[in-house]
From TrEMBL, chain A:
GO terms for molecular function: 4 iron, 4 sulfur cluster binding; metal ion binding. It holds the Pfam family Fer4_7. It comes from Bradyrhizobium frederickii. Keywords: 4Fe-4S, Electron transport, Iron, Iron-sulfur, Metal-binding, Repeat, Transport. Residues 55-85, 181-212 form the 4Fe-4S ferredoxin-type domain. It comes from the Bacteria. The keyword Ribonucleoprotein does not apply. This is Ferredoxin-type protein NapG.
Automatic annotation (TrEMBL), chain B:
This is Quinol dehydrogenase ferredoxin subunit NapH. One of its GO terms (cellular component) is plasma membrane. One of its GO terms (molecular function) is metal ion binding. Keywords: 4Fe-4S, Electron transport, Iron, Iron-sulfur, Membrane, Metal-binding, Repeat, Transmembrane, Transmembrane helix, Transport. It comes from Bradyrhizobium frederickii. The chain crosses the membrane at residues 32-49, 79-98, 138-156, 168-190. It comes from the Bacteria. PROSITE patterns: 4FE4S_FER_1, 4FE4S_FER_2.
Length: 254, 314
């Protein structure tokens, strides 16, 4: 720019190099922007695609998983698959669909052991503590038990029977003389293995495993349960009800 | 530069079929072998290497991880666990010894498709080529790392046609082969060695290792060169040859030091004057002017020692 005025001779090679840098740099910036957009959008995973046990939260998982497929290879039940272009999850990442093949919850958790990067957290050593998702009765209108029939299949196949799924008995208002055995999922114990979703007898499963983020499980911190706080504190947190002054007309009697 | 449509004819006539196609055969064998290691499990039930080229476990003991993938993972702010770090270190050390982009020409499953495109180009006499500067791929490496930082994901693996093809072959995810088909068409019709030689960030990354890697091709017999240009016609990175081959006057080393060289050995095969040999970085001795007795080419490949020996004998 000011080269000619300052008397330094212009070097055509320098001009060329600067041009190239600008051109290539611009191209690289466009490529980086497109790749970034693609990378961010790849976080959108279909709800029915579940990650293997011990998987990091989706955003961190995509930073950690190198798409090697070692977890898939070591899955003895062929539950896990690598995502192809059209499958939904980010290309090459492992997932499973509970309705096709659920997780059999191996005691030794071979998939986690095979992971070389920690995308599946090696800290998970007890499969009962896995959180691949959480089962939800997604269709109360079609669930046979909720119609007052006795199907119970999801309850029977649950590896954590009577903990992750219980049958809660209530009065059947339709017949007035029978009971409804409602399957109720207790998220605390549900690993998201998907056995219930797989074995639901209906054409379209009435119980489905949803990602933890979808079936939000964490109570907001600002909601305190009075009865829990009370037992934690070992007594009432507020004083006994105030003794209010009696306000009556002068000389009146109760 | 006029590309010879049939550059190997002279070499075959003078050296015989084997000596003129040795490195090609070895390379294809190596590529098939690497694939076979991964395929013996799913096809025959004999598990040798599990996983893919991104990360693998061989015989349950040897972990290998692509250092470029791990670098992106680090850029995406994931601190990887021990096994992948060990695996990446082993791969890095191996390529520091065996020549950086040897990955491209001896291991990468996409290479045969790119080679086929280049071969068809010569045969069909397709001379049109879009001008893409080889440096562009370095900017692309930067773009990939930037995208990894910004998106917090291993960005290149979302579209990497190399690992996609490997997954297609090893895991049967056939959509993944689409990228390879596109690259074949691009290389054939748009740009000569367009993908591997100008764009692929994986190759560019290994090229950086190649800048200091030990195993190299050397034009140590450059005195015998008759300027037939056949090596330029077959080389996937022709710009790496000149400094070594034409370095006589400037006294430059005959070793091809550029990281872009994939050590594919095509120049060694195609040269009827046996100008090129495998050698090591730093061995800068050149052979004297051609003697009457041509030593066996096999002996030359085994080590670069015979250079001295031949001189003493002649």
């Amino acid at each position: 720019m000011s080269d000619s005025s300052s008397g330094i001779p212009r070097d055509p090679r320098r001009r060329k190099a600067l041009q190239d840098m600008t051109r290539f740099g611009g191209g690289a910036a466009v490529a980086a922007t497109m790749l970034t957009a693609f990378g961010v959008s790849s976080r959108a995973k279909p709800a029915q695609a579940l990650r293997p046990p011990g998987a990091l939260p989706e955003k961190d998982f995509l930073a950690a998983c190198v798409r090697c497929g070692l977890c898939v290879r070591d899955c003895p039940y062929d539950t896990l698959k690598l995502a192809d272009w059209a499958d939904g999850p980010a290309l090459g990442t492992p997932f499973f669909q509970a309705r096709n093949v659920p997780c059999e919850m191996c005691d030794t958790i071979p998939c986690v052991k095979a992971c070389p990067t920690g995308a599946l957290q090696h800290a998970l050593t007890d499969i009962a503590k896995a959180k691949m998702g959480v089962a939800v009765i997604t269709s109360r209108e079609t669930c046979l038990n909720l119609q007052g029939l006795r199907c119970d299949v999801c309850y029977r196949v649950c590896p954590a029977i009577d903990k992750a799924i219980t049958l809660e008995v209530s009065h059947n208002a339709r017949t007035t003389k029978h009971a409804i055995f409602e399957p109720v999922v207790h998220a605390e114990y549900c690993t998201g293995c998907g056995k219930c979703e797989k074995s639901c007898v209906l054409t379209e499963s009435a119980i489905k495993v949803l990602p933890i983020e979808v079936a939000a499980l964490k109570q907001d911190d600002h909601y305190k349960r009075g009865w829990e706080e009370k037992s934690k504190a070992g007594g009432a947190l507020v004083d006994a009800p105030l003794k209010l002054p009696v306000r009556r007309p002068e000389g009146g009697s109760p | 530069m006029t590309a010879n449509a049939r550059p190997y004819v002279e070499a075959r006539a003078q050296k015989g079929l084997w000596a003129a196609s040795r490195f090609l055969v070895l390379r294809r064998t190596s590529q098939l072998l690497f694939l076979a290691l991964f395929l013996s499990g799913p096809l025959l039930g004999v598990w040798i290497a599990k996983g893919t080229l991104a990360s693998s476990m061989t015989l349950g003991t040897l972990p290998l991880t692509d250092p470029f993938v791990l670098l992106q993972s680090l850029a995406a702010r994931h601190w990887p666990e021990g096994l992948s770090v060990i695996g990446a270190s082993i791969v890095l050390a191996a390529y520091l010894l065996f020549g950086g982009r040897t990955y491209c020409s001896w291991v990468c499953p996409l290479n045969p498709a790119a080679d086929l495109a280049a071969w068809l180009r010569r045969r069909l006499n397709i001379t049109f080529t879009a001008k893409i500067r080889p440096e562009l791929r370095l900017y692309f490496v930067g773009a990939v790392l930037a995208a990894s930082v910004l998106s917090g994901s291993i960005a290149w693996e979302l579209i990497n046609p190399v690992t996609a093809l490997h997954r297609a072959l090893v895991f049967g995810l056939w959509f993944g082969a689409g990228g390879t088909a596109a690259i074949f068409v691009f290389d054939l019709l748009v740009a000569r060695h367009g993908w591997c030689g100008h764009l692929c960030p994986v190759g560019a990354f290994y090229g950086q290792i190649g800048k200091v890697a030990l195993l190299r091709v050397t034009a140590d017999n450059r005195a015998a060169c008759n300027d037939c240009m056949d090596c330029f016609a077959v080389c996937p990175e022709p710009h790496v040859i000149s400094p070594a081959l034409r370095g006589e006057r400037s006294g430059a080393t005959p070793v091809i030091t550029a990281g872009d060289c994939t050590v594919c050995g095509a120049c060694i095969d195609v040269c009827s004057k046996q100008v090129f040999h495998l050698g090591l970085r730093g061995r800068n001795a050149v052979r004297p002017a051609p003697s009457m007795t041509a030593p066996s080419p096999v002996a030359r490949v085994v080590s670069s020692q015979p250079t001295v020996l031949e001189r003493d004998l002649s």
